[in-house]
Amino acid sequence: MAEAIGAAIISSAFGVSASVSTAVGIAGVSAASIVGGVTIAGGLLGLQLLVGSQQPKQKIAAQQLSLRQALPSRTIWFGRNLRAGPKFMWDAAGGKFFDGYYLGEGPIDAFEEVQLDGKITPITFPGGIATIAPWGNAVAVELRVGNVPEPTFDTLVSGLSYWTDAHRLDGCATALVTSTAPKKEKFNQVFPGGRPPEALFRTRDLKVRDVRDPGQTEDPATWVWSDRAGPCIYTFLNHGFGTRVPFSLLNTASWQAFNALCDETIHDKNGVAFPRYYLAGCHRAAEDEPADTLQQMLDACDGRLTLEPDGTIGVTGGKFPAVTLTFGDAGVISRKIIKGSSKLAAFNRLKISYLSPPHGYQQIEGDPWVDPDYPWADDAAELLETTFDRPWVQNHNQLRRLAKIYTAKKNPAWRLLGMVTDLSWAPCLFEEAVRIKSDRYGFDEVFIVERAVANIEAGTCTFDFASLRSDTYDFNAETEEGTTPAVPASPNSVLAATPPDPPESLVMLVERRVVAGGTSAVFLRLIAAEPAREDLSLIGRYRRVGDTAWLNMAQEGENRASLISSVLADGEVYEAEGALATYGAALQSDWTEPDPATIVAVADGTPPDQPTAFGVEAIGSLVTVVWINSGSANIADVQVRRATGSGAAYSSSTIVGTLAGAPNQSMVFSESLAAGTYRYWLVARNASGTAAAPLGPATVTVA
Description:
By secondary structure, this protein is mainly beta.
């Protein structure tokens, strides 16, 4: 029945009676007309309505929430994006300002970056304190990826009387920015302009299904994030906010091949590698037509949806088509031939634009594409310009490749329109391209099949063909990539192109300070050479060796080249890294290891004095060691070490006891031993483990 189901979809989508017969390789269904494997984006709306009528509309859970502001149009995002979002919450209570951002339907894959008023913060998922100037600890951000269920924002529950545990925003990616008001005299210092900061979030958005991976089933829980065009389009076709096409109607082999094409590695003229076709963007459920969004996604990869012989939906494009069929003049009943020429060209210059991540994910103009085959030296030459906007493209090299392909396809050397043939041409119905050789008109070209319909009763096929240049998909990055738009450099801008050099003469020290109650505590200090530029400061991070999470270090006073940590755990080994960054850490250098790379946190580096009155006595098998602790105020304990043999060295001794005691306290240690000669040493230590020189040995013989 797969053929019949496919035929029904074709019929509804294109308004014709469709089937697949033995003429095109599939038996079992007969009808008067066959629609070939032409691009179906134009008929997708009908297909969408057909499939949509078989499924209930997705329930909008957000409408069930009781909020002060109704949620705007629900959105789904693909790829990697930087955005703010409509606010589901803005309020103030108890000296706090609350700004809640709706960032689209979830679950999204990850939050990669949080910006406040355009400045990059160190905040990572699931949230944290801004710490950077001017806000310091006054601004906190909480992040939700949009799982079901999601935990509520406890900050809102405790801060607002009307917000309860029931307000979870399940399935919505959200962020809450909480700003705490400082003292009145510091308000404008902490919040320049008299307001809390506006936030931007860079995200890896919806997880998508790649049918090349057998582990990715129809269950979205098995999908992974990707910005490759193929998996994103495949997922949108099935999504409840998209065209809602069942996965069973998508041709697996076709999509597997297209996904592999999108995954191929391309290099720009600077040697930077990236996938052949990737994309990013959003679909607004209440504002955007799914067919329009789908076309924009396809435009980002030169993609075309096709109907396969079994009635499923395939995808093609993105590379020069493989041609297996060749036809001549035989079987042609009639045709309209248009031969391309410079004067009849649709255009010869493309004004191109795309979404540029280095420019803050703003849509900007790229280097225009000029048709190199146009006879510009001709006196009759004229500029024929058209726009080429690709808002789902984020790479200038990819944009220029697409512009070249588009130019070639829209300016073919030959067009064959309304070409009527006998059924000997039926094998073309489900081909992407064929070769046509005409001795009568003198062409031998590869032609894209733009339209294909067979009338079985009349015994005819009708086609539209457009020739395709052999070099359409060839691309020399060195000569054809053009000039990538420059990124404006600004010391405080997140858009500045060149990061600073790493810090020079970076040194790590242990610093001991007396804290509350006269207790000595230990800190890490990072010091570097004074940065040459006034807009640069040293930033640093540290962690205990073996831990995975880094902790930020803070600047004290006005010294831009010195940082201090929080209190360290006494006796532990720590590592740190330093970098130079512009104001607000909008740009920073690579992280650099200091000298030394690791250091032991010792709060008290002064050893206590050695014990006195040290003696050892054996009575039978019982050995007793006695001593009196020194009068040092910082003595914490004494280690008792023992070695076997009359000539045993300290290096062969082991710790057999550790006794804590006060200054000038008399101490006794006892143990039972077998017959033999033993040597003992005492090692006095302070609370940081700093040890005095060993005292001993004292020798005893057990009979």
